[in-house]
Structure to design on (485 residues):
């Protein structure tokens, strides 16, 4: 158990909703109309707007909102057409009307203050916090638990002990609690940060007052844990103490937020503004015809076999196993840019169909498609039947190019020009490349100069063995004139 958003905002689910409704807004005992017939779920017995099965898939059934055929209620572009309600009210269990029109509907209760006659949206009363789940202990026992949690550096146990202590002292405030922690040098700090919350969240103090400016956090050190927190951190202990008077923990307001106009108090369905299409909303893509706007189950096109042969488009085998000749549909020649043949079969001269083979010298095919035995041509004497390393003649240096001076007639070993440096610094004569300045650069990253100036909080104190919390551990003196404490 921890003193987080869920603990303070929850106040037990029973305090927020005393009715046993499911996720769709229907009573759990009434949502049993769907029957299983062995193959499909039959939802024909559903009443109201809860019918949502194959009949609402848009594949031919009528829309439950406007009555037209071809789309579902969720995708209906037309205004809703009132329909006769034939179901049972989930409040009084009588037929003939909906729960919203029930004459026996109980008075609405505010989810914030638990009072009747108004809703949570616009309620300015303090929130009624239910702490029945918290253990009953005396203040001394709860304070001893807090000390034990601090000694063990267990933040979860500390927040649980604070909950127990608050239950035994319901009138305590964050300022009083922080002053008591400083007086006894407990080693834990209540820091009030200036953080921006989501519109549906707010800060609540111990007594349930909402809309507090600063957010309370529990820290083991008075210094920010990360550099990015410094802009939200109080500059001094006195400023932190003043902030705690207007601070609380973030909780859910319990008020819905419209994702159409981004205002609180209603949902998109009941938004009075014109419905704006969300361009960032994910679109539905059909994997059968690759069109947007519908799913595969609603696709009007016949189903295609994704695993069919890519050559003959028949099922049962792959293109590698296809008995049909290679299909030339959609094939473009890289030589003449005509469709219907490959470049190796191009009838143009030099494209393979009328060119000369570089292996046998015959026309009509390429060297790669030559049916004759590969001919060995010596690069030293140009004779056929052997390669250059097997040539019986002396090496012809007039065909050799030097890799150092780029001249013909000799190799790099016999080159009289000075050897060029390896500009790429690769794995050749220069080893692993680069200058051998390892010793000069070895200590480049070991020197660090800290020129930051210190301040009242001791951001950059580097003195070993000294305590940097003098400003926090001293006796707190609070005056009406705002002097240091």
């Amino acid at each position: 158990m921890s003193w987080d958003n869920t603990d303070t905002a929850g106040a037990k689910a029973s305090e927020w909703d005393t009715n046993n409704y499911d996720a769709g807004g229907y009573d759990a005992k009434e949502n049993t109309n769907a029957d299983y017939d062995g193959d499909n779920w039959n939802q024909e017995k559903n009443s109201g707007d809860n019918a949502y099965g194959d009949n609402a898939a848009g594949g031919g059934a009528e829309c439950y909102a406007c009555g037209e055929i071809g789309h579902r209620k969720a995708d209906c572009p037309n205004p809703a057409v009132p329909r006769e309600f034939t179901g049972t009210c989930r409040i009084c269990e009588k037929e003939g009307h909906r729960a919203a029109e029930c004459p026996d509907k109980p008075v609405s209760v505010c989810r914030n203050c638990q009072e009747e006659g108004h809703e949570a949206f616009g309620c300015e009363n303090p929130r009624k916090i239910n702490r029945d789940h918290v253990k009953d202990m005396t203040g001394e026992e709860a304070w001893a638990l807090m000390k034990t949690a601090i000694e063990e550096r267990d933040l979860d146990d500390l927040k649980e002990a604070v909950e127990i202590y608050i239950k035994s002292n319901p009138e305590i405030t964050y300022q009083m609690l922080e002053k008591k922690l400083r007086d006894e040098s407990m080693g834990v700090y209540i820091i009030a940060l200036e953080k921006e919350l989501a519109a549906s969240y707010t800060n609540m103090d111990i007594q349930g007052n909402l809309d507090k400016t600063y957010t309370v956090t529990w820290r083991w050190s008075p210094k920010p844990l990360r550099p990015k927190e410094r802009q939200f951190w109080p500059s001094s202990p006195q400023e932190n103490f003043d902030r705690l008077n207007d601070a609380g923990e973030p909780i859910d307001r319990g008020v819905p937020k419209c994702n159409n106009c981004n205002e609180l108090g209603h949902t998109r369905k009941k938004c009075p503004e014109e419905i704006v299409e969300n361009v960032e909303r994910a679109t539905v893509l059909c994997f059968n015809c690759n069109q947007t706007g519908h799913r595969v189950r609603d696709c009007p096109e016949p189903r295609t076999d994704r695993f069919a042969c890519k050559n003959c488009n028949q099922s049962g085998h792959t293109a590698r196993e296809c008995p049909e000749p290679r299909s030339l549909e959609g094939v473009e020649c890289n030589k003449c840019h005509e469709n219907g043949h490959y470049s190796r079969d191009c009838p143009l001269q030099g494209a393979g169909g009328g060119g000369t083979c570089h292996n046998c010298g015959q026309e009509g095919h390429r060297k790669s498609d030559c049916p004759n035995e590969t001919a060995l041509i010596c690069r030293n004497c140009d004779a056929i039947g052997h390669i250059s390393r097997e040539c019986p003649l002396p090496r012809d240096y007039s065909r050799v190019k030097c890799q150092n001076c780029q001249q013909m007639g000799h190799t790099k070993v016999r080159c009289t020009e000075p050897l060029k440096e390896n500009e790429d610094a690769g794995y050749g004569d220069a080893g692993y490349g680069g200058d051998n300045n390892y010793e000069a650069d070895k200590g480049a990253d070991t020197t660090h100069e800290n020129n930051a100036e210190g301040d009242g909080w001791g951001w950059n104190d580097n003195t070993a063995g000294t305590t940097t919390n003098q400003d926090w551990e001293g006796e707190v003196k609070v005056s009406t004139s705002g002097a240091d404490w």
Remarks:
- The CA atoms of residues 179 and 476 lie 7 Å apart.
- Strands lie at 35-36, 41-42, 189-193, 201-204, 214-219, 247-252.
- DSSP finds eight helices and six strands in the chain.
- The first helix runs from residue 5 to 10.
